[in-house]
Every structure is written in structure tokens, then in C-alpha cells.
Amino acid sequence: MTQIPPGRMLALYDDPASCERAAAADHHRVSQERRDMTTTDYSVKGMTCSHCADAVTGEISRIDGVSAVDVDVDSGRVSVTSTAPLDNAAVAAAVDEAGYELQS
Ligand SMILES: [Cu+2]
């Protein structure tokens, strides 16, 4: 995994140009294309609608280092973009908190 120098994230978020790009384009896509980010796909059981997706997104977003969460309800796929690899137990706990079950 790529190590991120301290201060690198702040530099990214303090750059007004990157904010404008994020606002103009699809926000998740922009986040995933940043090379210092890690994106991991998870499989979540039990989601049936956008409300479920919102609940899962909200809980996972609270984990330290998470910058984007993309949910596909039909397949149960949850793509999580973060500044460092995430602890699987933390993701499982967040999904459980939302009322669903992490598979794997
Ligand atoms: Cu639902």
C-alpha cells in the first residue's frame, strides 16, 4: 500500500480547484481517481432500497479516513474509498450499526 505523507490530505482539501472539480463532476468518481486513495469493495447483505444505501453510507462514512462510499443496492456491493486500508472489523461494525450484515 502507498504511504501517504502527513499533510497531503489537507493539501488536497485546501485546494479550491479540487473542490470545484468535485462539485462539477460526479463526486465519487473524482475521489476514486485520486491515486493516494484506497478503494475496497465489500458485500453487504439485506439492502433493498435507497434508504438502506443511505443508512450504510452514513455509518461507514463515520469511520476515520473514509472519503467516499458508493453503494449498489441490487448487487449489495459497497465501494469504500479511504486514505488508508480499513480495519475489516470497523467496517463490519458500521454495517451492523446500520442494521445490515457484512458478508465475507
Ligand atoms: Cu431500504
UniProtKB/TrEMBL annotation:
GO molecular function: copper ion binding
GO biological process, one term: copper ion transport
Pfam families (UniProt xref): HMA
Superkingdom classification of source: Bacteria
Keyword annotations: Metal-binding
Bilayer-crossing regions: none
SUPFAM superfamilies on file: HMA, heavy metal-associated domain
All residue ranges annotated as the HMA domain in the record: 38-103
Protein name: Copper ion binding protein
Organism lineage string: Bacteria, Bacillati, Actinomycetota, Actinomycetes, Jiangellales
